[in-house]
Amino acid sequence: MISVNNGGKRKVAFYARVSTEHESQVSAFENQMKWCYKIMAEHPEWELVEEYSDKGITGTQAKKRPSFLKMIEDALKGNFDLIITREVSRFGRNIVEVINYAKKLKDNGVEIKFISDEISTFDKNGGEKLAEISASAERESRKTSERVTAGQEIARKKNVLYGSGNILGYNRVGKTFVIDDEQAETVRMIFDMYLNGHGVRAIRTELLKQEKKNSKGQIKWFESTISRILENPMYIGKQYQNKTKVVDYLNHIVKVNDKSEYVLIQGTFKSIISEEDFEKAQEIKKKRVKKNFGQKPIGIKSTKDKWMHLLECDCGAKFQQYKWRKDEKTGQIKKGYVCRNRRTNGTTQFRLENNLPLDGVCDRKTLCDWHLELMIKDILEEIWGYRKESVIRVFELIKENFENDEINNAKKLKELNSKIESYNQKRSKLLDLYTDETIGKGEFISKRAEFDENIKRNQDEIRRIEGSVDSEKDSRENKLNSIEKALEEIINFDVERLDEDLIKKLVSKVIARGDSEFEWYLNISDNLEEDVFNIMPNEKLDIKRQKSIETRDTKYILAFKSIITLDRAREYKKKYNKYVRENQWTDIKFNVYVK
Predict the structure, then answer these.
(1) Could you give the CA distance from residue 214 to residue 219 in angstroms, rounded to a whole number?
(2) What's the whole-number mean pLDDT along residues 169-184?
(3) DSSP string of 499-512?
(4) Alpha-carbon distances, residue 394 vs 473, 526, 559, 593 (angstroms)
(5) Which of 204, 232, 443, 456 could be cross-linked to 439 through a Cys-Cys bond (beta carbons 3.0 to 4.6 Å apart)?
(6) How far apart are CA 65 and CA 57, in angstroms?
(7) Distance between CA atoms of residues 293 and 420, nearest Å
(8) Over residues 180-184, mean pLDDT
(9) What is 170-295's CATH number, 3.30.420.140, 3.40.1160.10, 3.90.1750.20, 3.30.70.20?
(10) PANTHER family per the record (predicted)?
(11) pTM, full prediction
């Protein structure tokens, strides 16, 4: 139904798009708007109720065009029933998206007029024309992508430099880079400290203390930023290029190239660091890092302490070991653990006293090792003793739930295969209609693209379901068998500290959620799996924290909650002729998760 206002005019929306924020493109955008008003003036029976525009945005993906998506949403709500745009390429350069949106709008009574192309989606042959012009626009996008790639290759051979100038130590001036004296001093400070044996954490702390600004003018530093500065050849007058490659020009999927594929370009700008010092820094980095199973390099800091590998703070940081105190009676060294974030960046009090920002500050209190030893002792006694049958029952219930899912998956697979068969039959009939000249080339291309898209979507869903069903079933069977086997093992609990190998085998992670609140993650299935937490060493702390929470909620099951009271702590310490500092005691609460 065509919507009209009280004056009998048809409600119209206009859409404009330019692909870059370049001055010439902005001018083109303004021209589109003037053109729109001219068209409206020629049609007094129309009323312009809304204008939608996307500036500096590609036309190959609708999801990256917020105004376009808002227009589609408003059209489907019935806010207007006619969209005018200058040409098909302004509406989009992805043939499948253009045709799908046009069909969806037409089915809901909304017409699109591509004025310059003389196409209306309500015309008899509108779909055919639209398909032909959309295909042409998509080909032009592909050619543009190829031209850009070829242009970059030519530019590299001519030593043309890239970058907007947002690099510490330099400003972009014309086609080259000019040293920023104040920022260059910060760069030299970073290299000097590193060459004199300081690590990136210590350098970061010193930069914050001295209120040194980063390339954005902020007193904000990350260890990963400092590490990248130490590796950047810009500081010796050179630039890495060919760091990425476009693998899908329509969906703008970019792949990061291996470092061996980088191309090093010699610039004409002045260096801040000598090549000798830069090479020394690279040698130091090579000695300090190792490859972790093909993942990102991480700094080496070897330790034999089991808790150092397992402990994590609620802020996302790991813990660091230190000598807490010496036992007055035995002379034995008491170990403590402190959050690295707190130790490296300081507490709230320290940061306030030194006029440092409070972003990401952590005030977690230090932990003593015997609290951890007592917790794991109680946890394993619970699981192997009182909780043994309940833990097995939890996994059996999960197994039953997954068996119900398998029945549902079988039904889904049958439905998906039926849909694919139906679309294949339609595709065959479509070819017959085109061969008999019952339909034109444009309609043939349009319908075939629609059927192919539906077939691919259903095939992808089948692969996803089939790929997960068998592996999940085997994994569940193996896990349940391993759990039952593990719980049959005999463990000697009559010791102050449990066997270290046992703890390393069973405990995946321990997170201090509060000063006296913990989460324990146990892998009692004995399955050797990849690190399910998938945390990279240089990731931001808030990202690490979020990953841990997501892993807990998706990979682990809450087995039970427990508490260590003063009486339990006193009993444990007394058994080994030791005592508890009762005036400092706070009950310890902990949740135990298993997988």
Answers:
(1) 6
(2) 87
(3) -HHHHHHHEEEEEE
(4) 16, 17, 8, 12
(5) 443
(6) 7
(7) 41
(8) 92
(9) 3.90.1750.20
(10) DNA RECOMBINASE-RELATED, DNA-INVERTASE FROM LAMBDOID PROPHAGE
(11) 0.43
